[in-house]
Design a protein that fits this description.
Structural class: alpha/beta
Largest sheet: 7 strands, mixed
Number of helices: 7
CATH class: Alpha Beta
Order of helices and strands: HEEEHHEHHEHEEH
Shape: globular
Distance between the termini: 58 Å
Helix content: 25-40%
CATH topology: Glutaredoxin
Oligomer: single chain
């Protein structure tokens, strides 16, 4: 009579296999080979508060860039939770930069001019003016390309200049999010 594992053994092995597969699918960080699974940052045009036009992602200044996407001005408080960690990381990694793009639907010229002027008048710090971007895009297409289903939360992405997304977190910064971001940065060469 051949050896046959008992049913409880098979259930245990099967359960462990399922657990491992599910745990891997919920991982936040990614290796360069797995970066495409987190999406591709789409090619968009953005403007900083000093009127400089940027073609993203290729005009991101860092080898790796923390891009904290917001969809409404009221989300700035959640964006600000990421800034201390981003500043600390940038001070230790010369090839790391961070940005705060506000993603807006395409609007007419007059609205864009008014909105950008209001942002500029409230932001006098040069560092902020280079980092805060406005992007008027086809929002449904932009969100679809990054699998963003909820505009009510900010989305933090670790992106290179080719648009590969290496890490993602939704919502305000947490200790776990900072730890995962640092791990993704180290994993991907900084």
């Amino acid at each position: 009579m051949p050896l046959r594992p008992n049913d409880s053994y098979l259930r245990t092995v099967f359960s462990l296999l399922i657990f491992c597969l599910l745990a891997g699918s919920f991982a936040q960080g990614a290796t360069p080979a797995a970066a495409t699974a987190l999406g591709q940052f789409p090619a968009i045009e953005a403007t900083d508060l000093d009127h400089a036009r940027l073609n993203l992602p290729q005009d991101f200044a860092g080898q790796l860039n923390l891009v904290i996407l917001s969809f409404a001005r009221e989300q700035q408080q959640d964006v600000n939770t990421w800034i201390p960690a981003a500043r600390q990381i940038q001070s230790g990694h010369s090839k790391f930069r961070f940005y705060e793009p506000l993603i807006m639907s395409r609007q007419n010229f007059l609205y864009r001019w008014w909105f950008n002027a209001a942002l500029r008048s409230n932001t006098t710090d040069k560092d902020l003016r280079d980092r805060i971007l406005t992007a008027y895009v086809n929002k449904p297409r932009f969100k679809r390309s990054l699998d963003i289903t909820n505009e009510k939360k900010v989305v933090a992405l670790l992106v290179d200049q080719k648009g590969h997304v290496y890490w993602r977190a939704d919502g305000p910064c947490t200790d776990e999010g900072t730890h995962q971001l640092l791990s993704a940065i180290q994993t991907n060469g900084l």
